[in-house]
């Protein structure tokens, strides 16, 4: 279960599924949510583009009139070995910061009036590379599915709970944070305790 489905099952009346590249997956998610009784729409917008984010906010405002929750879950990475400083080019750096740093800010700023009016909440999802200097994330497209699967299995064995986060775990954390009336400004790490060993 992903975040959108978890929110729908908790009673969300409408969900906007934002995407910048995976149009087919976004539309499939919207259709699945509609089957569950939620009004859903896939909307294309690159979160690193402030104008695109503002257009999305206007579209949501016009269609639904209110926003109770904003989940910023977009992210990108580029695998670069720590010693290879030249490998982290200006273009790569701008893309990483545009999506991972500016994106959540642009979204929060664009939706702020609606969230204030509804006394809504924002949840930003990010990589463990945010609070921990672990370097670039592993990539299936870099090492292949089999090697990636083997690496993930080894990571699970290193976690105290012998599990690492899957989509349903992230959905559970996001949903529980949105249901918590007095939690704000917190960082919640859900990786089965793996971060304790870094």
CATH class: Alpha Beta
Strand content: 5-15%
Roughly how many Å is the radius of gyration?
Answer: 18 Å
What is the overall silhouette?
globular
Strand order of the largest sheet: 1-2
At the fourth CATH level, what is the homologous superfamily? NAD(P)-binding Rossmann-like Domain
Number of domains: 1
User: Could you give the count of β-strands?
Assistant: 4
N-to-C SSE string, H for helix and E for strand: HEHEHEHEHHH
As for the CATH topology, it is Rossmann fold
Low-confidence stretches: none
Helical region count?
Answer: 7
> How would you state the average pLDDT, rounded?
90
Organism: Nonomuraea maheshkhaliensis
InterPro entries: NAD(P)-bd_dom_sf, SDR_fam
Protein name: SDR family oxidoreductase
Keywords: Oxidoreductase
Could you characterize what this model shows?
This is SDR family oxidoreductase. InterPro entries: NAD(P)-bd_dom_sf, SDR_fam. The protein has about 200 residues and is mainly alpha-helical. Helix content is about 45%, strand content about 10%. The strands form 2 sheets. It has a two-stranded parallel ribbon with strand order 1-2. The longest helix is centred in the middle third of the chain and has 29 residues, at about 90-120. It is globular and about 50 Å long. The mean pLDDT is about 90.
């Amino acid at each position: 279960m992903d975040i959108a489905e978890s929110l729908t099952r908790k009673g969300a009346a409408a969900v906007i599924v934002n995407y910048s590249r995976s149009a087919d997956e976004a539309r499939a998610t919207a259709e699945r949510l509609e089957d569950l009784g939620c009004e859903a729409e896939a909307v294309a917008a690159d979160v690193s583009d402030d104008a695109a984010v503002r257009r999305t906010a206007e579209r949501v405002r016009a269609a639904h009139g209110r926003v109770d929750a904003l989940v910023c879950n977009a992210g990108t990475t580029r695998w670069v070995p720590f010693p290879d400083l030249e490998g982290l080019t200006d273009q790569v750096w701008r893309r990483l910061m545009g999506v991972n740093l500016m994106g959540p800010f642009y979204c929060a700023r664009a939706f702020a009036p609606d969230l204030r009016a509804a006394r809504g909440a924002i949840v930003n999802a990010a990589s463990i590379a945010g609070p921990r200097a672990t370097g670039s994330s592993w990539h299936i497209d870099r090492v292949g599915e089999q090697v990636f699967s083997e690496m993930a299995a080894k990571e699970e064995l290193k976690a105290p709970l012998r599990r690492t986060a899957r989509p349903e775990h992230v959905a559970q954390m996001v949903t529980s944070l949105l249901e918590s009336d007095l939690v704000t400004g917190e960082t919640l790490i859900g990786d089965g305790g793996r971060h304790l060993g870094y």
